[in-house]
């Protein structure tokens, strides 16, 4: 199936000489939720801005739903809804007027019932006649989301959409994202809340210093790069790990009361049974054990540190 966004050898160098993107190739699948992760200054917003026609690329091509984003800009842009990081809208307009204008801007006929549904889903219906300048920061963020959805886009970009917003809005927004995906909308998000990407995304891309260093299905990424750990709470503290066990991936806590055993999440043979047997042979007993595996955040941090 043809990707809904096809980015090839995209490069961006600003007038200052700073190279924000370095030959980025990326294909976004139709109907997926794609999370783009990276530290501040990695190139996330630049990439989104080029696809949305806000920033010009230095080199490379972008096709949006089959339309070249330069040669056929209007058709490409009409497929996209963008929720930017910054709160930027006409503060003196009402919420309702803002949505009607945004819908008309993309050539869509009036549809009050659709706009009402969007506002109700974002808990904005009772604010429809309020001027935007009178709204709280969280409500303004909701308006940006509603505005991005006003023209029924097939692609929705969410650039740090929940940064600094309340828990209620975050919950409402992710519910809406799930409904949009069920209706065939493709979602591309950047976020500092990596647990959200871990919960929501189908695929994850990691960008660092303008380079896309990894694109992978989330489940595959966590299986390939994740580690599992077994934490054993010991019956009695030990001073050190016995020399006979020194070759095992074991760590002893500072107080000597906890042993952590790390093993490959991909491996069929974990070595846990052999570990417990050998601990018993050395008179080391445990009173409790817990298993855990790497979070997406830990994988992301390890990937970025590896590129320092």
Automatic annotation (TrEMBL):
Domain ABC transporter: 5-234
MF annotations from Gene Ontology: ATP binding; ATP hydrolysis activity
Keyword Nucleotide-binding found: yes
Keywords: ATP-binding, Nucleotide-binding, Transport
Residue spans crossing the bilayer: none
A Pfam family it matches: ABC_tran
SUPFAM superfamilies tied to this protein: P-loop containing nucleoside triphosphate hydrolases (SSF52540)
InterPro entries linked to this entry: AAA+_ATPase, ABC_transporter-like_ATP-bd, ABC_transporter-like_CS, ABC_transporter_ATP-binding, P-loop_NTPase
Entry protein name: ABC transporter ATP-binding protein
Species: Cognatiluteimonas weifangensis
Organismal lineage: Bacteria, Pseudomonadati, Pseudomonadota, Gammaproteobacteria, Lysobacterales
């Amino acid at each position: 199936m043809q990707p809904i966004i096809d980015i090839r050898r995209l490069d961006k160098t600003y007038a200052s000489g700073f190279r924000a993107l370095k030959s980025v190739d990326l294909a976004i699948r139709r109907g997926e939720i794609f999370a783009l992760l990276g530290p501040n200054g990695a190139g996330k917003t630049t990439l989104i801005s080029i696809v949305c026609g806000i920033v010009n690329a230095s080199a490379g091509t972008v096709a949006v739903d089959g339309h070249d984003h330069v040669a056929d800009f209007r058709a490409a842009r009409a497929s996209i809804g963008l929720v930017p990081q910054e709160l930027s809208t006409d503060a003196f307009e009402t919420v309702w007027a803002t949505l009607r204008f945004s819908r008309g801007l993309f050539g869509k006929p009036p549809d009050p019932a659709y706009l009402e549904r969007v506002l109700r889903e974002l808990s904005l219906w009772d604010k429809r006649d309020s001027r935007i300048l009178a709204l709280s920061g969280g409500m303004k963020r909701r308006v940006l989301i509603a505005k991005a959805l006003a023209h029924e886009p097939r692609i929705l970009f969410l650039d740090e959409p929940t940064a600094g917003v309340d828990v209620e809005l975050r919950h409402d927004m992710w519910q809406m994202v799930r409904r949009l995906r069920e209706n065939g909308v493709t979602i591309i998000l950047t976020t500092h809340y990596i647990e959200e990407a871990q919960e929501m995304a189908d695929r994850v891309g990691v960008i660092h210093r303008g380079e896309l260093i990894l694109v992978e299905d989330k489940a595959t990424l966590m299986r390939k790069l994740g580690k599992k750990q077994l934490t054993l709470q010991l019956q009695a503290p030990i001073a050190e790990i016995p020399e006979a066990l020194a070759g095992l991936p074991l760590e002893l806590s500072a107080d000597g009361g906890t042993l952590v055993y790390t093993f490959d999440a991909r491996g069929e043979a974990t070595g846990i049974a052999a570990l417990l047997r050998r601990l018993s042979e050395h008179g080391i007993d445990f009173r409790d054990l817990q298993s855990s595996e790497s979070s997406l955040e830990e994988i992301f941090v390890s990937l970025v540190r590896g590129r320092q």
